Amino acid sequence: MAEASKKRLTGAFKLAAVAISGALSFTAAQAQSNYPNKPIKFVVPYSAGTTTDVIARVYADKLGKVLGQNVIVDNKAGAGGNISAESVARSAPDGYTLTFSTSATHATNPALYKNVSFDPIKDFTHIAMMVSAPNMLAINPKIPVNNMAELIAYAKKNPGKLTYISAGSGTSPHMAGELLKTMAGIDIQHVPYKNINQGFTDLFAGTVSMTFYHVPVIYPHVKEGRLKALGVATSERSPIAPEVPPISDTVKGYDLRPWWGLAGPAGMPKDVVDKLYAATTQVLADPEVQERFKNLGLIITPMTPQQFNDFTVTELAKWSKIVKDSGATAN
């Protein structure tokens, strides 16, 4: 082939490459600017009926209306939320697979489980902090105690006899129990349940002793007399259970606050993150959502993507130390 022809052919290839590259860039930009143009999957790390599931369904319904697309809740329970978190971390970072990052999946689990297959910081895009909530310590009424001081005294006289349930290792009810064990110097046994509804059935029957579960889930059973409330796990009282004193009134410095925030896989486009953050801010400002969350005992705690990422880094360090100090392991 003549040298001039080779040069023309090479030039044509270069022009074609530039054209294709430009077309692909335009298509990607167009796809992002049109986001979302199909349903979004919201992966929930715990089973239906849990606090996380209730929050997720309220949020997903409103988010879908703000974005003009269906947001489908997909409950993927197991391994204390790790199965769900890993599935999202390995998903395409296009904004169509989202999840909650929680105080369990992104703060305690990496220290609690030996083989966590995701990095809670590097493998996720932290989009928006949303809500936090206190846990409530409630016992089966057959246990002969009426307050925290009596519970601690009973536990010390009966080491290993009292049991407490959770939705799995690393969840906030589990860590609330481990923190009390460490701070109060008592021996109580953790009993994790894959299906927390079965755990509650056993708790009502007296097969297990107590739980440190989220106020919006456990408090109705207290009001119905199925359980007896001894304390809330934050330094202030819950707005929906003001008569229940803080555990810290008896165990000084005791404070634990589970939290939930919006996250997706690492590497999500900035404009998609910005759109989701703006939409989440709009959802959290909705009076109907605010009233619903207030009635559930939740506290709206919004943060920007950067603030939420920095917060997660801090929480991971804090809970890694608590797990280490308590000697807790995944059951």
Q: How does this structure look, described?
A:
- This protein is an alpha/beta fold.
- It has two domains: 39-132 and 258-326, Bordetella uptake gene, domain 1 (D-Maltodextrin-Binding Protein, domain 2); 135-249, Periplasmic binding protein-like II (D-Maltodextrin-Binding Protein, domain 2, 3-Layer(aba) Sandwich).
- Helix content is 46%, strand content 18%.
- The strands form two sheets. It has a six-stranded mixed sheet with strand order 2-1-3-10-4-11, with helices on both faces.
- Helix 6 crosses helix 11 (305-326).
- The chain starts with a helix and ends in a 5-residue tail after the last helix.
Mean pLDDT: 88
Q: Indicate the radius of gyration in whole angstroms.
A: 24 Å
CATH class of the largest domain: Alpha Beta
Query: Roughly how many Å apart are the termini?
Result: 72 Å
The named CATH superfamily of the largest domain: Bordetella uptake gene, domain 1
Largest sheet: 6 strands, mixed
Q: List the strand order in the largest sheet.
A: 2-1-3-10-4-11
Specify the helix fraction band. Answer: 40-55%
Low-confidence stretches: 1-31
Oligomer: single chain
Treating each run of at least 4 consecutive H or I residues as one helix, how many helices? 11
Count of spatially separate domains: 2
Residue fraction in strands: 15-25%
Succession of helices and strands = HEHEHEHEEHEHEHEHEEHHEH
Structural class computed from helices and strand pairing? alpha/beta
CATH architecture of the largest domain: 3-Layer(aba) Sandwich
